[in-house]
Amino acid sequence: MLMSHIYLGIGSNDKPKENIRLAIKELRGFFGKIQISPVYKNKAVGFKGEDFLNLVVAFHTELSVKELMKIIEKIHALSGRKRTSEKFSSRTLDIDLLLYGQDILNNGDLIVPREDILKYSFVLKPLSEMAPNLIHPETKQSIISHWKSMSSKSDDLQLVGIELN
């Protein structure tokens, strides 16, 4: 099987430092070496709640999307995440598959590349710092060019120093 370059968005606003460290530790356990973006703090979107900490991680894997999603759900469970019908709510941990190589997927439950990449500065900013020259599979534009067109929205992001290594 071929190795795919994976990008995940990670966010938390319920014990965020603790839960992000848990996610990083578990992802390293499953995938070994992972690349970690800077961490940003931003206001909750769509509801009133504690600020979120968000970052992006990248790694290579031979796992299928389905196998990868099972691992993500295991990590969610370890953080005590409860699935609710509310789209916008507090989260112990939210791990989203942003990119799976250059694949474009839409099976109803899962859309990749994730639309959040082009929608939210807290996803695009750390991704642009990690992989500025990466080409978005659908738009065929670089991640940094997307960031430059969005950067007026970056005022709501605050760089946070958090030790994850």
Structural class: alpha+beta
- Radius of gyration equals 15 Å
Q: Choose one word for the global shape.
A: globular
* SS strand fraction: 15-25%
Query: What is the CATH-assigned architecture?
Result: 2-Layer Sandwich
How can the largest sheet be summarized? 6 strands, antiparallel
**CATH level 4 superfamily:** 7,8-Dihydro-6-hydroxymethylpterin-pyrophosphokinase HPPK
Number of domains: 1
CATH fold topology: Alpha-Beta Plaits
Beta strands, count: 8
The number of helical runs is 5
Question: Which runs of at least 5 residues are low in confidence (pLDDT < 50)?
Answer: none
Binned, the helix content reads 25-40%
Keywords:
165 residues; alpha+beta; Alpha-Beta Plaits; 6-stranded antiparallel β-sheet; two-stranded antiparallel ribbon; 24% strand
Write a compact overview of the structure shown.
This protein has helices spanning 16-31, 65-78, 116-119, 121-130, 143-150; strands at 4-12, 35-36, 39-42, 52-61, 94-100, 105-106, 111-112, 158-160. The chain has 165 residues and is of the alpha+beta class. The mean pLDDT is 89.
What is the element layout, followed by pairings?
Elements: E1 4-12, H1 16-31, E2 35-36, E3 39-42, E4 52-61, H2 65-78, E5 94-100, E6 105-106, E7 111-112, H3 116-119, H4 121-130, H5 143-150, E8 158-160
Antiparallel strand pairs: 1-4, 1-5, 2-4, 3-4, 3-8, 6-7
Helix pairs in contact: 1-2, 4-5
